[in-house]
Amino acid sequence: MPRVAPELKKGLQGLRGDDLEFRCVRKDGSVFWLSASWVPIKDAKGVFTGFRTSGRDVTDRKQAEAELRIAAVAFDSLEGMMMTDASSVILRVNKAFTEITGYSAEELVGQTPRLIQSGRHGKDFYRAMWEDIRRTGGWQGEVWNRRKSGEVYPQLLSISVVKDLDGTVTHYIAAHHDISDRKNAEERIKELAFFDQLTGLPNRTLLLDRVGQTMAASSRDGSFGALMFIDLDNFKMLNDTLGHDMGDVLLKQVAQRLSACVRDGDTVARLGGDEFVVKLAGLGTVAAEAAASAETVADKILTDLNQTYQLGSVAYHSTPSIGVTLFNGQSVAIEELMKQADLAMYRAKAASRNTIRFFDPAMESVMMAHAALERDLRQALEEHQFVLHYQAQVAGDYHLTGAEVLVRWQHPERGMVWPDDFIPAAEETGLILPLGHWVLQTACAQLTVWAARPETADLTVAVNVSAQQFRQPDFVAQVLAVLASTGANPQRLKLELTESLLVSNVEDVIEKMVALKAQGVGFSLDDFGTGFSSLSYLKRLPLDQLKIDKSFVRDVVTDPNDAAIAKTIIALAQSLALSVIAEGVETSAQRDFLAQAGCPAYQGYFFSRPVPLEDFEQLCAAGLSAPAGV
Ligand code: C2E
Ligand code: MG
Ligand code: MG
User: What pLDDT is attached to residue 41?
Assistant: First the structure.
């Protein structure tokens, strides 16, 4: 009988094939695995004499197998697990992964993880992720993915790289941990920390943060921002009479109205009680314009918050007091700014309530003057305080060809007001539309009167049309209606447009010009050279005339640059087959220079100042044989 150690004997009982594996202990106590084969040895007569044994140390393989078993168990953990090959093709997913994503294993295997991408992260995100994986052998972070249902969810993703002995990447293992719940909780915490529970508006903390950001941006780009304190007048009385629930309903409605008054990027916050704050950003780099924009928003808020509220079955009227302060950069601390707006708000309360006050009194007086001008302008339109003056347009040697009509405001207290002092306000308030219409109407009516008299029958009238007026969708129809109602000859009407009109939607401008031109109306491009003119547009506009701006004419005799510009405009007009007229001609030297340069038509004090109708008609009767006026 062969001598077999007791433990081998025991092992032999389980013998299935040739090899048996034994867990052995070395003399030094360390454990190893032995794979042994047993070959029976027989003598010449075929009698069994023993075993020939050979053994191999298989400790490494046994360990690898154990690790695989552990890995398999780990893979089937509660975390979503996904294994891909080196080119990111999914080889295996666990049950948790299919539960998280909603896809079955069959649907996933063979695909790439792109299948579950949410589209919320850009290329740069994934590029940085892969860069990290290559550099460090793994990546961990929060990723938004998309379930099969289409729902986008947040998850914590850890990716590990598996390499073979040569260091070549063979697999990627990704562990997905759905963190929707945690995210929701975080959101909720954020909501509690940064938002007012009643209205859902940002609270003081978030407001201060946003104001800080806006101030930082403002110190970078120089643009103004504004802070507005809004307090509801007599809110306490509502609470006391109708109860706090009604008070809450009002506050919610106020919050909605305020939010509707501002643009994206502005902030409406509630500090508590009936105190709201609005932060405006990006109001431009000019203080007066920023103040005007802030006032426009404050006005809108005042109007909107004055509309009746429906509190259950009660129709309720509430008014606000508004304090405004402007800021630029970070020169004033946030808390100081809040105090300024608060102070201004108290001044609004002290004044009469239901009103707006600026922190800066100088700003306020500018605003008050602005508001007064707007009021006066409306009244002026109603009370027909505008008049037209006529300035002669002259060709060659004092031949009067027509007039430009220039509007003046005969103010009952201030006397004659010039257009530069009220046209900008008229444009801002939209009052330029009725005013411009009146000018057109009056000028066309005059053309008809003149048509009946031999000495004025050939005169043209040039009417200034503001960009806003021209951009009205029905501008063409308006002009045609005026021509029809007054019976004016369209051939005698010339509309003066400015280059500002060409900044946007040139196609629309061309279309309108073509339509009017087809009826005989002429066009002159006013103040030419001072604004934006693309030569390619110029070629396409159906213009009749370029008008050299008076700023070039003023020094045309003494300043070589102005002389060059004037000559260039004249040459340009000639090459485009347009007529050209110079405005602001004040001296014979200017006229002579322009005449020599090829400009055949003029307008300016040298010939006549803009004068009332009677004076202009006298001029027509007397003829322009000698320069009138200065
Ligand atoms: P504009 O159309 O360029 O008008 C020419 C301005 O130059 C007029 O100023 C005129 O009085 C002035 N002017 C004429 N000759 C001379 C001169 O020899 N020297 C100098 N220094 N100035 C001269 P005004 O009347 O104050 O009008 C200013 C601007 O107001 C006009 O510039 C025009 O843009 C606008 N405007 C006037 N009336 C109307 C109107 O009815 N509608 C619109 N939309 N704008 C108008
Ligand atoms: Mg003009
Ligand atoms: Mg002009």
Answer: 81
Q: Are residues 44 and 82 in the same domain?
A: no
| 329 in any annotated domain | yes
Let me know: does 520 contact 542? Beta carbons within 8 Å.
no
- 541 CB under 6 A from ligand 1? no
Query: CB of 466 closer than 6 A to ligand 1?
Result: yes
| Domain at 48, CATH number | 3.30.450.20
Q: Which of 147-156, 365-374, 499-508, 602-611 has the highest mean pLDDT?
A: 602-611
**If we measure between CA atoms, which residue out of 325, 209, 208, 342 comes closest to residue 273?**
342
239-247 mean pLDDT: 88
- Claim to verify: residue 173 and residue 208 sit in the same structural domain: no
State the distance from the centre of ligand 3 to the C-alpha of 533, rounded, in angstroms. 15
Q: With respect to residue 622, please indicate whether it lies within any of the assigned structural domains.
A: no
Residues 145 and 19 in one domain: no
Residue among 139, 145, 142, 173 at smallest CA distance from 156: 142
pLDDT > 70? residue 114: yes
Is the CB of residue 225 below 6 angstroms from any atom belonging to ligand 1? no
Please tell me the distance between residue 583's alpha carbon and the centre of ligand 3 in angstroms: 6
- Return the closest-CA partner of residue 492 out of 527, 451, 452: 451
> Do 451 and 536 have their domain in common?
yes
Q: Model confidence over 458-494: pLDDT tens digits?
A: 999 999 999 999 999 999 999 999 999 999 999 999 9
The beta strand positions in 351-492, using DSSP E, are 356-358, 386-395, 399-411, 415-417, 460-464
How many domains is the chain partitioned into structurally?
4
- Is 146 domain-assigned? yes
Tell me, yes or no, whether 404 lies in a domain. Answer: no
pLDDT-derived band at 533 (thresholds 50, 70, 90) equals low
Q: Which domain does 239 fall in, by range? A: 195-359
Strands (E), 329-476: 356-358, 386-395, 399-411, 415-417, 460-464
pLDDT of residue 13: 46
